[in-house]
Amino acid sequence: MTSEGHGFSNPDRTRIKVCGVRDIDTALAALGAGADTLGFVFVKKSPRFIEPEDAWAIIRRLPPMHTTVGLTVNASVEGFSKIERQCPTDYGQLHGDESVDVVKACGPRVIKAIEFDPATIEEDLRKWGAVDEVDAILIDGSSGGQGEAFDWSALGAVSAACKKPIVLAGGLTPANVGEAIRVVRPWAVDVSSGVERERGVKDHGLIREFCAAVRGADAALG
User: Fold this and answer.
1) Does the annotation mark 87 as catalytic?
2) What's the rounded Cα separation, in Å, for the pair 14 and 183?
3) pLDDT (tens digit per residue) in 10-44
4) Please, are residues 31 and 68 in contact by the beta-carbon 8 Å criterion?
5) Per the residue annotation, which of 124, 135, 140, 190 is the catalytic one?
Protein backbone atom coordinates (compact mmCIF):
# COMPACT_ATOMS: atom_id res chain seq x y z
CA MET A 1 0.00 0.00 0.00
CA THR A 2 1.46 3.30 -0.99
CA SER A 3 1.27 6.58 0.88
CA GLU A 4 -1.34 7.71 -1.63
CA GLY A 5 -3.57 4.67 -1.11
CA HIS A 6 -6.77 4.16 0.84
CA GLY A 7 -6.86 2.83 4.38
CA PHE A 8 -3.60 2.70 6.39
CA SER A 9 -2.06 5.47 4.34
CA ASN A 10 -1.43 8.63 6.34
CA PRO A 11 2.24 8.85 7.43
CA ASP A 12 1.52 11.78 9.77
CA ARG A 13 -0.34 9.66 12.32
CA THR A 14 -0.84 6.10 13.38
CA ARG A 15 -3.98 4.51 12.00
CA ILE A 16 -6.20 2.52 14.39
CA LYS A 17 -7.97 -0.73 13.59
CA VAL A 18 -10.44 -2.22 16.05
CA CYS A 19 -10.91 -5.88 15.18
CA GLY A 20 -13.55 -8.36 16.23
CA VAL A 21 -16.54 -6.01 15.91
CA ARG A 22 -19.83 -7.86 16.27
CA ASP A 23 -22.53 -5.22 16.74
CA ILE A 24 -23.46 -1.78 15.46
CA ASP A 25 -23.06 -0.07 18.86
CA THR A 26 -19.43 -1.17 19.11
CA ALA A 27 -18.78 -0.19 15.50
CA LEU A 28 -20.12 3.31 16.05
CA ALA A 29 -18.35 3.64 19.40
CA ALA A 30 -15.03 2.70 17.79
CA LEU A 31 -15.44 5.19 14.95
CA GLY A 32 -16.58 7.86 17.37
CA ALA A 33 -13.49 7.27 19.51
CA GLY A 34 -11.23 7.81 16.51
CA ALA A 35 -10.74 4.38 14.99
CA ASP A 36 -10.06 4.43 11.26
CA THR A 37 -10.81 0.81 10.49
CA LEU A 38 -13.18 -1.90 11.69
CA GLY A 39 -12.32 -5.58 11.44
CA PHE A 40 -14.83 -8.42 11.15
CA VAL A 41 -13.76 -11.97 11.98
CA PHE A 42 -15.09 -14.65 9.64
CA VAL A 43 -13.51 -17.58 11.49
CA LYS A 44 -16.13 -19.79 13.13
CA LYS A 45 -13.92 -21.06 15.95
CA SER A 46 -13.18 -17.51 17.11
CA PRO A 47 -15.15 -15.99 20.01
CA ARG A 48 -15.33 -12.88 17.80
CA PHE A 49 -16.92 -14.69 14.84
CA ILE A 50 -19.65 -12.92 12.94
CA GLU A 51 -21.61 -14.20 9.99
CA PRO A 52 -20.75 -12.29 6.79
CA GLU A 53 -24.39 -11.30 6.31
CA ASP A 54 -24.52 -9.85 9.83
CA ALA A 55 -21.29 -7.95 9.28
CA TRP A 56 -22.67 -6.50 6.06
CA ALA A 57 -25.80 -5.36 7.91
CA ILE A 58 -23.51 -3.42 10.27
CA ILE A 59 -21.37 -1.98 7.47
CA ARG A 60 -24.43 -0.71 5.62
CA ARG A 61 -25.34 1.40 8.65
CA LEU A 62 -21.94 3.01 9.11
CA PRO A 63 -21.16 6.63 8.28
CA PRO A 64 -18.88 7.33 5.29
CA MET A 65 -15.10 7.78 5.24
CA HIS A 66 -14.05 4.65 7.11
CA THR A 67 -12.37 1.37 6.18
CA THR A 68 -13.55 -2.19 6.76
CA VAL A 69 -11.57 -5.44 6.86
CA GLY A 70 -12.76 -9.03 6.66
CA LEU A 71 -10.53 -11.56 8.42
CA THR A 72 -10.19 -15.18 7.32
CA VAL A 73 -7.77 -17.97 8.23
CA ASN A 74 -6.61 -20.47 5.61
CA ALA A 75 -9.78 -20.10 3.59
CA SER A 76 -9.77 -21.52 0.08
CA VAL A 77 -9.92 -19.01 -2.75
CA GLU A 78 -13.49 -20.17 -3.38
CA GLY A 79 -14.38 -19.75 0.29
CA PHE A 80 -12.75 -16.33 0.46
CA SER A 81 -14.58 -15.21 -2.69
CA LYS A 82 -17.92 -16.40 -1.29
CA ILE A 83 -17.42 -14.37 1.89
CA GLU A 84 -16.36 -11.38 -0.18
CA ARG A 85 -19.59 -11.57 -2.14
CA GLN A 86 -21.64 -11.80 1.05
CA CYS A 87 -19.75 -8.99 2.76
CA PRO A 88 -17.62 -6.86 0.42
CA THR A 89 -15.15 -5.23 2.82
CA ASP A 90 -12.46 -2.79 1.67
CA TYR A 91 -9.66 -5.23 2.52
CA GLY A 92 -9.28 -8.94 3.09
CA GLN A 93 -7.01 -9.90 6.00
CA LEU A 94 -5.47 -13.33 5.50
CA HIS A 95 -4.41 -14.51 8.92
CA GLY A 96 -3.22 -18.05 8.28
CA ASP A 97 -0.50 -19.94 6.43
CA GLU A 98 -1.80 -19.01 3.00
CA SER A 99 0.58 -19.57 0.10
CA VAL A 100 1.72 -16.77 -2.17
CA ASP A 101 -0.47 -18.17 -4.93
CA VAL A 102 -3.55 -18.11 -2.70
CA VAL A 103 -2.80 -14.58 -1.53
CA LYS A 104 -2.43 -13.40 -5.11
CA ALA A 105 -5.69 -15.06 -6.08
CA CYS A 106 -7.49 -13.35 -3.17
CA GLY A 107 -6.06 -9.96 -4.08
CA PRO A 108 -5.85 -7.14 -4.64
CA ARG A 109 -6.29 -5.20 -1.38
CA VAL A 110 -4.93 -7.88 0.92
CA ILE A 111 -3.54 -7.40 4.42
CA LYS A 112 -1.26 -10.39 5.04
CA ALA A 113 -0.84 -11.31 8.68
CA ILE A 114 2.28 -13.09 9.88
CA GLU A 115 3.25 -14.38 13.32
CA PHE A 116 6.39 -12.68 14.60
CA ASP A 117 9.49 -14.89 14.72
CA PRO A 118 12.82 -13.13 15.27
CA ALA A 119 14.57 -15.79 13.21
CA THR A 120 12.42 -15.24 10.11
CA ILE A 121 10.91 -11.76 10.38
CA GLU A 122 13.24 -10.16 7.82
CA GLU A 123 12.62 -12.97 5.34
CA ASP A 124 8.86 -12.77 5.94
CA LEU A 125 8.81 -9.02 5.36
CA ARG A 126 10.76 -9.37 2.13
CA LYS A 127 8.58 -12.24 0.93
CA TRP A 128 5.24 -10.52 1.42
CA GLY A 129 6.57 -7.10 0.57
CA ALA A 130 7.30 -8.39 -2.92
CA VAL A 131 3.70 -9.50 -3.54
CA ASP A 132 1.82 -6.78 -5.41
CA GLU A 133 -1.56 -7.90 -4.11
CA VAL A 134 -0.45 -7.31 -0.51
CA ASP A 135 -1.16 -3.73 0.53
CA ALA A 136 -0.05 -4.02 4.16
CA ILE A 137 1.65 -6.57 6.42
CA LEU A 138 0.22 -7.23 9.87
CA ILE A 139 2.64 -8.53 12.49
CA ASP A 140 1.04 -10.47 15.34
CA GLY A 141 2.46 -12.09 18.46
CA SER A 142 0.50 -15.29 17.86
CA SER A 143 -1.59 -16.96 15.20
CA GLY A 144 -4.20 -14.33 16.00
CA GLY A 145 -6.70 -13.29 18.67
CA GLN A 146 -4.61 -14.52 21.61
CA GLY A 147 -3.51 -11.14 22.89
CA GLU A 148 0.17 -12.08 22.93
CA ALA A 149 2.75 -9.31 22.69
CA PHE A 150 6.28 -9.85 21.37
CA ASP A 151 9.68 -8.16 21.23
CA TRP A 152 8.79 -4.85 19.60
CA SER A 153 12.42 -3.75 19.52
CA ALA A 154 13.34 -6.74 17.35
CA LEU A 155 10.66 -5.73 14.86
CA GLY A 156 11.58 -2.06 15.07
CA ALA A 157 15.15 -2.92 14.11
CA VAL A 158 14.08 -4.35 10.75
CA SER A 159 10.74 -2.68 9.97
CA ALA A 160 12.29 0.27 8.15
CA ALA A 161 13.45 -2.06 5.40
CA CYS A 162 9.86 -3.08 4.62
CA LYS A 163 8.35 -1.11 1.74
CA LYS A 164 4.78 -2.01 2.67
CA PRO A 165 2.88 -0.43 5.58
CA ILE A 166 3.22 -2.41 8.80
CA VAL A 167 0.23 -3.00 11.03
CA LEU A 168 1.24 -3.87 14.60
CA ALA A 169 -0.96 -6.31 16.52
CA GLY A 170 -0.70 -8.71 19.43
CA GLY A 171 -1.23 -7.87 23.08
CA LEU A 172 -1.80 -4.16 22.56
CA THR A 173 -3.71 -2.32 25.30
CA PRO A 174 -4.35 1.29 26.28
CA ALA A 175 -1.45 0.94 28.72
CA ASN A 176 1.23 -0.26 26.29
CA VAL A 177 0.26 0.94 22.81
CA GLY A 178 2.14 4.21 23.24
CA GLU A 179 5.41 2.41 23.90
CA ALA A 180 4.75 0.04 21.01
CA ILE A 181 4.30 2.99 18.65
CA ARG A 182 7.46 4.65 19.93
CA VAL A 183 9.54 1.52 19.34
CA VAL A 184 8.11 0.23 16.05
CA ARG A 185 6.64 3.37 14.40
CA PRO A 186 4.01 1.30 12.58
CA TRP A 187 1.61 2.64 9.98
CA ALA A 188 -1.26 1.24 12.03
CA VAL A 189 -2.07 -0.60 15.25
CA ASP A 190 -4.65 -3.35 15.53
CA VAL A 191 -6.46 -4.08 18.80
CA SER A 192 -8.98 -6.74 19.74
CA SER A 193 -8.63 -8.52 23.09
CA GLY A 194 -6.93 -5.47 24.59
CA VAL A 195 -10.22 -3.55 24.57
CA GLU A 196 -12.51 -6.32 25.77
CA ARG A 197 -14.23 -6.66 29.15
CA GLU A 198 -14.59 -10.38 28.51
CA ARG A 199 -13.52 -12.63 25.69
CA GLY A 200 -15.24 -11.49 22.51
CA VAL A 201 -17.09 -8.57 24.12
CA LYS A 202 -15.72 -5.09 23.48
CA ASP A 203 -15.59 -2.42 26.20
CA HIS A 204 -16.41 0.97 24.72
CA GLY A 205 -14.52 2.78 27.44
CA LEU A 206 -11.35 0.80 26.75
CA ILE A 207 -11.72 1.55 23.04
CA ARG A 208 -11.81 5.26 23.84
CA GLU A 209 -8.76 4.90 26.11
CA PHE A 210 -6.87 2.99 23.43
CA CYS A 211 -7.56 5.59 20.74
CA ALA A 212 -6.59 8.40 23.11
CA ALA A 213 -3.32 6.61 23.94
CA VAL A 214 -2.48 6.31 20.23
CA ARG A 215 -3.12 10.00 19.67
CA GLY A 216 -1.04 10.83 22.72
CA ALA A 217 1.85 8.77 21.39
CA ASP A 218 1.63 10.47 18.01
CA ALA A 219 1.68 13.88 19.65
CA ALA A 220 4.70 12.98 21.77
CA LEU A 221 6.60 11.83 18.68
CA GLY A 222 5.80 15.06 16.89
Assistant:
1) no
2) 13
3) 468 999 999 999 999 999 999 999 999 999 999 99
4) no
5) 140
List, as one string, the DSSP characters of 159-199. Answer: HTT-SS-EEE-SS--TTTHHHHHHHH--SEEEESGGGEEET
Residue 205's H or E segment, with its range, is helix 204-221
Q: Is 97 a catalytic residue?
A: no
What residue ranges in the chain does DSSP mark as E strands? 15-19, 37-41, 67-72, 91-94, 110-115, 134-140, 166-168, 188-191, 196-198, 201-202
Bond before 108 cis per omega within 30 degrees: yes
Per residue in 60-107, pLDDT (tens digit) is 999 999 999 999 999 999 999 999 999 999 999 999 999 999 999 999
Per-domain residue ranges for the chain? 15-221
Q: Please report, as a single letter, which amino acid is at residue 164.
A: K
Amino acid of residue 39: G
List, in sequence order, every residue forming a beta bridge with 92; answer none if it has no partner: 70, 110
For 172, phi and psi rounded to 5 degrees? -80, 140
Q: Which of 19, 87, 162, 211 is catalytic?
A: 19
Phi, psi of 81 (to 5 degrees): -65, -35
Domain range 15-221, its CATH number among 3.50.50.60, 3.20.20.70, 3.30.70.120, 3.40.50.150: 3.20.20.70
